[in-house]
């Protein structure tokens, strides 16, 4: 954006031009004040930008964990879609037990998606206790093992049920980290 010259050009000393000269000086003053406000605003924005990198390490860790949990939810959804599409393509070979296995896989995948999304939305954590010493991570492990075994035993030629192990491996890594409240920043 082009700015006008802050100093107006000298005008002739004609009494009729005095109003024009006064008006041009007022606009020059207003552009000076606008320019100084812009520079103050940019200094304020720079100061705010400098303060933002000093984010709390616990908040940064929680944001990263939340991003991984959303990733686990999306990966589980995609893996479930691959498993179900493989089952639908080969459903002519299915008997009663195969349909039971397919149903178990679908229920396990939906439960895993709900668990990962619940963790990502801070409704629960992987360390939330359910029954005595059993926490959500242990339940997710049982769900993944059950889904993989049932997905592999269903009579289809694809092994896409193994893709459920990737999101579970990410949650295993998240579960093994210290909770953000217990972590201390290093100097």
Give the SSE layout.
Blueprint: H1 18-51, H2 57-89, H3 96-120, E1 129-131, E2 134-135, H4 136-153, H5 165-176
Antiparallel strand pairs: 1-2
Helix pairs in contact: 2-3, 2-5, 3-4, 4-5
Written overview of the protein:
The chain is an all-alpha fold. It folds into two domains: 15-47; 63-176, no CATH class. It has helices at residues 18-51, 57-89, 96-120, 136-153, 165-176; strands at residues 129-131, 134-135. It has a two-stranded antiparallel sheet. Strand 1 (129-131) and strand 2 form a beta hairpin. Helix 2 (57-89) runs antiparallel to helix 5. The longest helix has 34 residues, at 18-51. It starts with 17 loop residues before the first helix and ends in an 11-residue tail after the last helix. The model is unreliable at 183-187 (pLDDT under 50).
Write a compact overview of the structure shown:
The protein has 187 residues and is mainly alpha-helical. It has helices spanning 18-51, 57-89, 96-120, 136-153, 165-176; strands at residues 129-131, 134-135.
Features of the shown structure:
single chain, 187 residues, mainly alpha, 2 domains, 3% strand, flat, disordered C terminus
């Amino acid at each position: 954006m082009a700015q006008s010259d802050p100093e107006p050009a000298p005008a002739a000393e004609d009494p009729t031009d005095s109003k024009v000269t006064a008006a041009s000086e007022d606009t020059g003053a207003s552009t000076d004040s606008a320019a100084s406000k812009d520079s103050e605003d940019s200094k304020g924005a720079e100061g705010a930008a400098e303060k933002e990198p000093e984010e709390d390490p616990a908040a940064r860790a929680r944001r990263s964990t939340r991003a991984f949990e959303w990733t686990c939810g999306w990966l589980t959804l995609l893996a479930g879609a691959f498993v179900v599409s493989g089952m639908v393509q080969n459903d002519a070979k299915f008997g009663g037990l195969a349909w039971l296995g397919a149903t178990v896989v679908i229920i396990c995948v939906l439960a895993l998606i709900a668990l990962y999304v619940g963790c990502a939305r801070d409704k629960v954590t992987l360390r939330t206790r359910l029954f005595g010493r059993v926490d959500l991570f242990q339940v997710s492990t049982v769900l993944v093992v059950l889904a993989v075994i049932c997905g592999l035993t269903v009579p289809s030629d694809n092994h896409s049920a193994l893709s459920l192990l990737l999101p579970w491996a990410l949650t295993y890594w998240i579960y093994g980290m210290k909770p953000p409240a217990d972590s201390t920043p290093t100097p």
